[in-house]
## 1
Amino acid sequence: MRNIRAVLAVVAITAVACLSACFPSAGDIFGGGGGGSPASVSGKWSILLTSSHGSSGDVDLEANISQSTGAISATEAVILSSSPCEFGTDFIQGTVNGSNISFTLAFGTGHPTASFSGSVSSDGLSMSGTYKIPSGDCASSDSGTWAATKFGDSSASYSGPVVSAVNERTITVLAAVQEDASNNLQANVTLTNGGCSMLTLTGTAIGSVLQLENADGEIAFVAQASDPTYATLATKYQIGGTSCGLADNGTGTLSKVVPAVVGRSTASSRVNTQANPLSHSLLEKILELHD
């Protein structure tokens, strides 16, 4: 009798083990987020940090993320708005495990490092989570939430007016922009009522931002896309020297001539350099770095 019970016990244990091996767990069925192949996050990202201390602490971070399996990095990261920790030496590195993502943003030697954790959406076009920044030489400690939107190819024709802040003249801009796989930009720009009629500009796309300048660096255009379709570009320009008339600067909004129809979510409102302080600060910051 004892032998029969022992045999039955062994059979029961074997059956349970077989069932466990043959059927997926609840975590496998419903997804635990941390298993499986790492989500793909390579590309251009626009990241908004919302401080728990209020909107005055919000920061817009633009980054081009590279990925090798589960490891990510970004050396071309631009902190926007009025962040006191922008030193032009930002570096992002981290990991992706399934749909979970974690990374750090280093502001440079001797400066604090921010840490981020969160998750990637199932379609790979957005991310969100929480962040923490310790106190340091450039800011007091902070924490809050972050949300990121992925941006695609900016290649298109854009047109619209920009208005001079110097003499209030309106310049009509028509720009044909080409972006390659490495996010390098080339633009052929036609100006009506400008100091010169034709410009050839080159530059880089980082996140939602397009940075363009001429060969001698005297003319610069910086624009931020309103959404991943690049429907509109909040634009600032700066002209130095005499290569395109007198020194000048101004702002405006360019629109895509034929908006592309793509399967991406769009922002609820368009970017305007006057109404959106983050965009305004972004363009000011990049033009400052250009100087």
## 2
Amino acid sequence: MQTIISEIAFTFVDDAVALASGFASVARDIAAEMLSSARARLLAPVDRLARICDVGGVLAAREAATLRRRHRATSWQSRPAPRRWRDRFNIFRGLHDLT
């Protein structure tokens, strides 16, 4: 009798932990999307200025190379390497080619 009660309790605790981790994952994804969209809105003028100043077509070539890499990565069903935190929120990382 006690084993049934302990199994029910352990099952309940395991389900509660799985539910909490699922909520944490959803909250993390929502926060990441909000930060990404806020970054795009805030840096739109900088991106427009960079495109205007891009005389040699460096940004267009870089975007084409990025798209090719992404297509190649998805065609092999592999995940890209995780980016470091300091690179993820660097607002000028797209301008490193313009020296």
## 3
Amino acid sequence: MLFAGRPKGSRNKINQAYIDAFCQEFEKHGPTVFARVRKKMPHVWLRLAAELQPKQMQIEHGLSDMTDEQLRQRIAELNAAIANELAVGVAPRVGDADVGTPPSDTRH
């Protein structure tokens, strides 16, 4: 037994209609409502702000394009930069163009 289900594209039409209606309401009342919610219900404001953030982010780092030798060379350069800063009594700066930013999930 086969079920026909929803006509193709109907969900997209409903989603688009909802987005269009929401945008119209936002254009009329958005800033005023946002200000009121931020002041009277900050927990709702924060949840909305969090939900608007992307669920996933893809970070391009270029390391996958490097050969093993290029990776070894880059590691040696980073180690030298770190050693140099430690030798002069300056802590390495996270995110410095010379030192680089290590991935946050790296565990040794």
## 4
Amino acid sequence: MFAPEPPLDPSGDEGRRLLRDELLHREYHQQDLWQRLTDWLSRLFDRSVGAASGVSGVTVFVTLLIGALLLTGLLMLLSRIRRDGRQRVRPAAVLTDDRPPASELRRRAEAWLAQGRHEEAVVDGFRAIATRQIERGRIDDQPGATAHEVAARLAASYPEVGTRVGRSADLFDATMYGDRPATRDDATDVLGLDDTLAGAR
């Protein structure tokens, strides 16, 4: 097949046929998507640099500085969001260095329950359980221990109530994080577990 010589003045049908024939050539179909993307970005960058070549160096410097500051601010914001998310997920400690005796924690839990503040009753009730068992020598005193660490030690000492202890630890975590409001039944279950463990030998 011969290629027509310029100047070309094809009819509409002739022009479409020539274009179709041209686009069927192999070199148009050898590049993959990645290559096309990098070529496009390269052309875009070349055009940007070409457009900026008539601009003063100070303007280019200021533009680059503003871009760098915006990028730095965005990265700091993202790292803070990520760090805050990790801090919220970290389990709260049941046992702290400066905790009141078990009897005081139990009294507070009962007062919270009487006031209808079930979340506080669950939290102080579980802390009363842990503190009472430390006072009785059934578990080790480890300030900073999480609810599930305390529950694991209690379940080892009292296997017959292991499920109830685990559920109480779950309630403690759920109310500390605010994910789930506690009910009156939840609070009375935790205080009932304290009574059960207090009477156990």
